[in-house]
């Protein structure tokens, strides 16, 4: 009998403890104290120092840091659109707002799904075996009625082809997220979600094709703050002592291990090869002859020559020799041009009458789309010369002569296509035929700012190196011109002790002898750094200019 009493006593004690814990837990969750008072609202100027110190984290970044800009327009847009976005992911909305491109929105959606899965899978895989849980899946996922807000945005300016933004995100949400646990038939609901994050978004490389960047890189500048309640069996499981802190640290560590700067989430937007317009082939053009050209000279003849180039190409046009006093000239001259996009590019050629004094007269032109060519198949074409490419211009019906060409498009093989698309700033190798011990000096003139001439501002850049001169095209009436032109110098040895002279000049567009040319500034660049670093891309202040600056990129390419 004593043994039975002892057993019953232990059972009663255990049952009592269990019932007491359950009652205490529910009282802790659902009991509302009666002494809760509304907070006292006072202006900031009336707060003491301790209160201000406590409120400091809540002050927007654009107040604390002058380099952050206000983005009230974005917050207002999201606030007005939020009621209509019940089941749309917020980040997809943000992508569509900022970048206005459906393709990008789809890419963001896929990336977000992949990110959520990547974060959740290791946590679930680690935890569910301990509790014999078969699976965890979402049954409902809506964002609620409270939109997120951005406390500020900071934009970084670099000399590279990229755009860097930092956004301060705060979101105190009321979402409806229901998670089904396949084991005990349980369902958990996420409530009172709060997310504070400082993401850095990098768009790179910037390219001349819409949407003007090839990929998005996202990283977090600090560990995110994530706070939420988890209703399980009608009660908030996060109120269990110790569990809240454990879950918070677990989420922070998982996200930080994958995306805390310098680690990044990469979202591809475009094919890098197409975005960067890398060479994909060579177009061989042989200018054979012209027939029945019209007279241009006073003595009844003409001095024709042909200029040809590819559209969307900034390289200088190729030129044939001049055939003096000939209306049916024969050239038989061959040229090779690099093709970057055979579907959109076209071969444009112009026939001119050479003049010793004054402007050369244009005799006619035409355009040949590359998509009409069959790869690796030579084709002889006889094209009529037109005044312009306007199909409605009646003057194109006049006979201006014909031009005979032989063309062949040779696409690169897979192993011949340049494989530097991952890093747009990578320095290429020097071409075949580069002297041993020497290399190729590449000068890329990007842009200039704050140029100012006394009489005119039509800037062009003049480059002098070892007695050789190169020039960019002039940009008319522009104080902030952009050229993006590339020049090359083949050298027998590294230019360690050499200097490159870069001069910005302005030429008057009007006829006359008064102030025809004007110097807008110059800079002498030492080439020692480019030989050791292979590449430098800097902005230089122009000498003899008040505020003028020029951005020049230098590369030293060797065969090794």
UniProtKB/TrEMBL annotation:
- Native organism is Escallonia herrerae
Which ranges form a coiled coil?
none
Q: Which family does it belong to?
A: Belongs to the synaptotagmin family.
Instruction: Extract the SUPFAM superfamilies matched here.
Output: C2 domain (Calcium/lipid-binding domain, CaLB) (SSF49562)
Select a single GO molecular function from the record's annotations and give it.
metal ion binding
Q: What name does this protein carry?
A: Synaptotagmin-2
Keyword Isomerase listed? The answer is no
Tell me which residues make up the SMP-LTD domain.
Answer: 67-270
